[in-house]
Design a protein that fits this description.
By secondary structure, the protein is α+β, with helices and mostly antiparallel strands. Helix content is 16%, strand content 35%. The chain contains two helices and ten strands; from the N terminus they run αβββββββββαβ. The chain has a four-stranded mixed β-sheet with strand order 5-2-1-6. Strands 9-8-7-10 form a four-stranded mixed β-sheet. It has a two-stranded antiparallel sheet with strand order 3-4.
């Protein structure tokens, strides 16, 4: 069995940056087109099938008396006529895909806002998108009977703002 690495990127990231990346990846994967990866130098496009194998593994490795923990997410499928993976010279559009910045770059925060989920005075659950300066950028415009439904409502908006986190207010 031989392997051909089409794209690889590794660096140290904050939890917030990792979460923003995973949300962006989910947004790309949720569409029906290719998933595009960029790192400033290389661009790779992967076209996954409708159904693929998905494996989640948490490992503890012991080496020289020290423990290292890893979370591995693996999505796997047979390459065929309707699936592909290729390195591209130029991305299909300048802003398409998930881009990684090098550790030496000044990285902006993954998002300038955060989602808040809260219960209003009438006992309804609501969501709003708040800029880091405290201004409310957007809200759901309606109350939800359950917190779960409020989160479902904001998830459809979050798809268009992949870097925004969720903060629960008491």
């Amino acid at each position: 069995m031989s392997e051909d690495t089409v794209f690889e990127f590794e660096s140290s990231r904050t939890r917030t940056e990792i979460a923003a990346y995973l949300r962006a990846l989910a947004g790309e994967f949720d569409g029906d087109g290719p998933v595009t990866f960029r790192d400033g130098e290389y661009v790779a496009a992967v076209t996954p099938p409708e159904t693929a194998g998905f494996d989640v593994e948490v490992e503890r490795e012991r080496e020289d008396g020290a423990n290292e923990l890893q979370i591995e997410l693996e999505i796997e499928w047979e390459e065929g006529e309707e699936t592909s993976a290729e390195r591209l010279e130029e991305p299909p559009e300048p802003d398409v895909g998930i881009e990684f910045a090098s550790e030496s770059d000044d990285r902006p925060e993954p998002s300038q806002g955060r989602f808040e989920v809260y219960e209003d005075r009438a006992g309804q659950w609501r969501w709003r998108l708040v800029h880091r300066n405290g201004n409310i950028i957007a809200d759901g415009g309606e109350g939800y009977a359950s917190k779960r439904n409020a989160i479902r409502g904001l998830r459809s908006v979050q798809h268009n703002a992949p870097g925004a986190g969720i903060e629960e207010l008491d």
